[in-house]
Amino acid sequence: MSDQSFDIVVLGGGSAGYAVALRAVQLGKSAAVVEKDKLGGTCLHRGCVPTKAMLHSAEVADEVRDAGHAGVQAELQGIDIAGVSAFRDGIVSKKFKGLQGLLKAKGIPVFEGEGKLTSPTTVQVGDQTLTGRNIVLATGSYAKTLPGLEITGNVITSEQALQLDWIPQRVAILGGGVIGVEFASVWRAFGAEVTIIEGLPHLVANEEESVSKQFERAYKKRGIQFKLGARFSGVTQDESGVHVSLETGETIDADLLLVAVGRGPNTAGVGYEEVGVQLDRGFVTVDDRLQTSVPGVYAVGDITPGLQLAHRGYQQGIFVAEEIAGLNPRKVEDINIPKVTYSDPEVASIGYSEAKAKEQFGEDRIETYEYSLGGNAKSEIVGTTGSVKAVRVKDGPVVGVHMIGRRVSELIGEAQLIVNWEAYPEDVSQLIHAHPTQHEALGETMLKLAGTPLHAI
């Protein structure tokens, strides 16, 4: 096959990678994508989309169990894991075909195969060399484990967990971050006994502390066990399952151990260092315009330091395409990128926590208010407790919003507009929030901070 040249060659076809290509062709550039697995990457095939499909199945199961509180007589007869898998895989398949069709319609060729960076302007795929005026690295991430902890048998990561064709009765989960608590939510709804092992003082420890504490209370109420400040020391396996040892000497017996200790960057063996791309602990170092140490070579998505989120990847992909095109785009900093944990209850946040805001702006310059969802009619109807907390600079803008409760992920859109547009509570308090909606909780929080509370005390 003859070599081909493009304005931009993207190494990796996940969220960040294909976003570069789509925006580039909108701007009149030619672009090609190289992908060794499936277009859509981890998010579509092994992460965001399939896990959220399973979480929906879990939510339906819990709704059936609790239907009596709404006057509906229903009985949960069981979980058909084959049916859950078919539901999940059907959604993934449909989105995959749609994405393939989108790139084809835009005239973006996808080169299937393992690509390797061979110079600042070339990527090798099999026997073909692709030349680009600019190269964008977007090779994504993988599920990490701990040193000496082998992923084998009934010690699994999230990728193997998605492919299980049986429902465990007892599960131990190593890690109380987003991935760990989401799978805990699924398995508990499916009837499993779940124990989370977390070395930090809280579950979802990167969130506002008051949110983490509410989350822990909610998980206790659901019967999900967790051990905080607990250090893992080892695991053995036999015909009865896994036996997880903690440094305290305690042992947790389970059918499975899910290792959910984060994700590492896929940067080994793809030619980065040989071409001069600087790495730090495996991550590609970039400047504030996402350019690597090699001029003309950019990096986006999970291989760059910071939040590992699909929508961050989209934003970075669009940013780099516009940067290459000379548009001088505005970069959204990680602090102002929305984060969501799709468990039950959900957690959604953006911006500074109260503690971080005080560090940034000064102890005496920060004002907060936390509105309980107990005062919100729609939250009562859907059977959730929780809260909306806003952090503002005194006489200044809102710099953080932190929420917990069922369906609060749907509130993050308004919250991110408030924070990213540097709105004052006084600006938002004049706007009307439909009744009864959970959005009213955001409105009530802003009314209180503006000094004009309606239902807030």
Explain this structure to me?
By secondary structure, the protein is an alpha/beta fold. The protein folds into three domains: 3-143 and 264-334, FAD/NAD(P)-binding domain; 155-261, FAD/NAD(P)-binding domain; 345-450, 2-Layer Sandwich (Enolase-like, domain 1). The chain is 32% helix and 26% strand. It contains 14 helices and 24 strands. Strands 1, 2, 3, 4, 5, 6 and 19 form a seven-stranded mixed sheet that branches. It has a five-stranded parallel sheet with strand order 8-15-9-10-11. Strand 23 and strand 24 (398-405) form a beta hairpin. The protein is globular and about 65 Å long. The model has no long low-confidence stretch (mean pLDDT 97). Keywords: Cytoplasm, Disulfide bond, FAD, Flavoprotein, NAD, Nucleotide-binding, Oxidoreductase, Redox-active center. Residues 337-444 form the Pyridine nucleotide-disulphide oxidoreductase dimerisation domain. It catalyses: N(6)-[(R)-dihydrolipoyl]-L-lysyl-[protein] + NAD(+) = N(6)-[(R)-lipoyl]-L-lysyl-[protein] + NADH + H(+).
Give me the secondary-structure topology.
Elements: E1 4-11, H1 15-26, E2 31-35, H2 41-46, H3 48-65, H4 81-105, E3 110-112, E4 115-119, E5 122-125, E6 128-137, E7 141-143, E8 155-156, H5 158-161, E9 170-174, H6 178-189, E10 193-198, H7 209-222, E11 225-228, E12 232-238, E13 241-246, E14 251-254, E15 256-259, E16 263-265, H8 272-275, E17 279-280, E18 283-284, E19 297-299, H9 310-324, E20 339-341, E21 346-351, H10 354-361, E22 366-372, H11 377-381, E23 387-393, E24 398-405, H12 412-420, H13 425-428, H14 439-449
Parallel strand pairs: 1-2, 1-6, 2-3, 6-19, 8-15, 9-10, 9-15, 10-11
Antiparallel strand pairs: 4-5, 5-6, 7-16, 12-13, 13-14, 17-18, 20-21, 21-24, 22-23, 23-24
Binding site for FAD: 52, 115, 139-141, 302
Cofactor: FAD
GO molecular function, one term: flavin adenine dinucleotide binding
